[in-house]
Amino acid sequence: MKITEAEFVISAVKPHQYPEDGLPEVALAGRSNVGKSSLINKLLTRKALARTSSQPGKTQQLNYYRVNQALYLVDFPGYGYAKVSKTQRQAWGEMIENYLRSRNELKLVLLVIDARHEPSKDDCLMYDWLKHFQIPMSIVVTKADKLPRSKWDKHLKMIKESLGAGREEKVILFSSETGLGREQLWEVIMAESSDKEESV
User: Fold this and answer.
1) Residue 111 and residue 200: Cα distance in Å, rounded?
2) Which of the two ends of the chain, N or C, has the fewest CB atoms closer than 10 A to its terminal CB?
């Protein structure tokens, strides 16, 4: 996947702030500090377009990144961060739910999970929610470079079993350090965004 143009567009909190150009959107959901920003940077071959931070909970809006004038990557606030107030977590939850249930441009959700750990309760809730509302989803397992290659299959099996994912589920092992899984993930993104694929 050749990236000719990638830009941050807007941090949105209300539907009227969402882009209105009708491009397909691919959203990224996952717990705080799971590596979504690093994943975006690796996908877009940019070092710091998406701001990474050692401080979890930094993303507080829906961050839109336009790619090749053809589609958007939409970064959700990370969930499960204890130091965020209950009120703030509830507001984030309502914002994300409204987006997921009403955004016609949404073509795919990437559920991002750390390869080293069993999916959290919030990961499982998000998975079940996406399945219930029949929203297209791929599971992206990040930080593969933090595990020995010999443990990859074991951890992927553990993650799928914890989520209750079937064999047909798309699971992509990814590393923002090595680029593992980048092309495979772009293939999935382009296939799900096929109505605009010609211009990617």
Assistant:
1) 22
2) N
The pTM of this model reads 0.88
Can you read off the two tokens belonging to residue 36? 């979504």
Compute the average pLDDT of residues 90-94.
Answer: 73
Distance (Å) of CA 74 to CA 6, 57, 147: 13, 16, 27
Provide the pLDDT for residue 113: 96
130/61 Cα distance (integer angstroms): 20
Q: Measure the CA–CA gap between 85 and 145, rounded to whole angstroms.
A: 33
Domains in the chain (CATH in brackets) are: 6-199 (3.40.50.300)
- Looking at residues 130-140, what average pLDDT do you find? 93
Rounded distance, CA 130 to CA 127, Å? 5
Instruction: Give the CA count within 13 Å in the CB-facing half-sphere of 131.
Output: 13
State how far the Cα of 162 lies from the Cα of 81, in Å rounded to an integer.
20
Task: Answer for the pair 75, 26: CB distance below 8 angstroms, yes or no.
Answer: no
Report the distance separating Cα 42 and Cα 25, nearest Å. 18
Contact between 137 and 109 under an 8 Å Cβ cutoff? The reply is: yes
Are the beta carbons of 156 and 172 closer than 8 angstroms? no
Structure tokens at 174: 């990814």
Residues 14-43: tens digit of each pLDDT: 899 999 999 999 999 998 889 899 999 999
